[in-house]
Amino acid sequence: MLAADGLKPVAVVLTHGHLDHTFSVLPVCDGYGIPAYLHPADSGMLSDPARWHGPALAPLISGVRLPDPADVLALDDGATLSLAGVDLTVRHAPGHTQGSVMFSLDLDDSPGLLAGDVLFAGSVGRVDLPGGSWESMLGSLRDVVLPLDDATVVLPGHGPATTIGRERATNPYLAEASAAPKGRGL
Q1: How many DSSP H helices and E strands does the chain contain?
Q2: What's the predicted TM-score (pTM) here?
Q3: What is the pLDDT of residues 36-81, one digit of tens each?
Q4: Measuring CA to CA, how many Å separate 184 from each of 20, 102, 135, 140?
């Protein structure tokens, strides 16, 4: 697709290390000589995906070993990546995985959030796989998601786009997170 559209990627930024988000990282990174960015808490997930997908999925991918790309760079909370004229601010938001991150960016008319598998329209990412934690997810929703402006456009890793305002008003998991006492989670 990249070649067919005449595109030249400059980096691969990963919201977390699960296989459904990382399967093409090696050929894209090494094929174009570009780095992959991943939070250090999810290191190891690229090369050994079966370990991180639980007993139901692991048998389907057991034995799959994917070498890490030649250049994997760490995503640090609060860091800003400037890639191809786009500034992405890293927001560490553990819960779906220990190294889950979201990226804030400016869209044309509003703030944006690349939410990965932390926040979906009407839901949140699952926390039942190895490395997942409901306590951490609540902390991330409370401390990272809820402070965002209602106009923030959320582009999740799966499903339709939404806004923080819509999710604040309708998402039961955000309601639970807003009531969670400090000290839970992160």
Answers
A1: 6, 11
A2: 0.90
A3: 999 999 988 887 766 666 666 666 666 666 678 889 999 999 999 9
A4: 29, 20, 6, 10
Query: What are the helix (H) ranges across 105-171?
Result: 134-140, 164-170
174, containing H or E segment? helix 172-179
| Tokens matching residue 152 | 């923030």
SS3 letters for 26-95? HHHHHHHCCCEEECHHHCCCCCCHHHHCHHHHHHHHCCCCCCCCCCEEECCCCCEEEECCEEEEEEECCC
Average pLDDT for residues 10-29, to the nearest whole number? 91
What is the CB neighbour count within 10 angstroms for residue 186?
A: 18
Tell me, what's the pLDDT at 68? 82
